[in-house]
Amino acid sequence: MNSSIVPPAAETPPPGGDPRRARLAWLTACAALSLLILLLTAWELRLAPLRPGGSWLVLKVLPLLLALPGVLKRRLYTFQWASLLLVVYLGEGALRVASDPGLMSRVLAGAELALTLVAFTALLVYARPYKQAYKVRKKALEAAARGEAA
Description:
The protein is an all-alpha fold and 150 residues long. It is built from four helices and no strands. It has one domain. The protein is elongated, with a radius of gyration of 19 Å. It starts with 18 loop residues before the first helix and ends with a helix.
């Protein structure tokens, strides 16, 4: 795989993980995050804005736009903070599904909720093998340090 949006360093398979699963999780995260950005933008500008003509609430996509390049480049740190960020969108989607008066707005909130859950899960699935390898390496280094100190 030699894509223009993925640098060669990001193509390394996850330690101890299935490279196909990691690629699928990455592609899913990219697609869900992109669709979430498009959905939220369309929602607040055209489909069911809080005020006719659009709403300043469209600015809520800015944090997602900041995360997108790092997710496209498979930066593990971005995967970690983006998964924390998505919890806010999860809460907003759940709140608006339950409380928005218009049917269209509730449907869009349900779509936001679904896309957020998909993106969140994909980010975690991608990052998990790296986190596990880090813990194993840290434990080995701590054991080696204790062995040298004794």
